[in-house]
Task: inverse folding
């Protein structure tokens, strides 16, 4: 029992280290967006989809209309303790193409600051039956049954 105070100090130090480690933020990266150095190898009006694929790779998203554009999206998330994860950085690189050969017409980079919040509208049709449950409607129609209506 002579080592009891030393053992308590080790346990206290271990608890302190674990509690401090639990309070540190965790960063996660999602997606891929080419850097400006990688994009410097691409020439607008000269390079095509094939050369973009060789230089920076295929994107995770493409344009809806005949692959009119390629979009590279990367996000950096910060997770801290019990709080909800938050996006601290987002990069979107948009490469636009034109023509059958798919020649580059434009290269743009957008960041989190360029984004806008888009309010989504939700339209709900109100029910004409209010205050009556399904079971009550079902049982309420039992007395209204007329077998003569089936014979006609």
Result:
């Amino acid at each position: 029992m002579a080592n009891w105070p030393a053992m308590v100090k080790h346990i206290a130090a271990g608890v302190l280290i674990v509690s401090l480690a639990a309070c540190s933020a965790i960063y996660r990266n999602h997606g891929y967006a080419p850097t400006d150095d990688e994009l410097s190898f691409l020439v607008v009006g000269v390079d095509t989809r094939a050369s973009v694929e060789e230089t920076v790779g295929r994107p995770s998203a493409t344009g809806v209309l005949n692959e009119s554009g390629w979009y590279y999206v990367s996000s950096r998330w910060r997770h801290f303790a019990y709080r909800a994860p938050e996006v601290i950085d987002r990069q979107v690189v948009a490469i636009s193409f034109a023509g059958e050969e798919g020649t580059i017409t434009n290269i743009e980079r957008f960041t989190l600051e360029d984004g806008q919040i888009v309010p989504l509208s939700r339209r709900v049709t109100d029910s004409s039956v209010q205050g009556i449950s399904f079971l009550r409607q079902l049982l309420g129609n039992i007395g209204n049954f007329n077998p003569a209506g089936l014979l006609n």
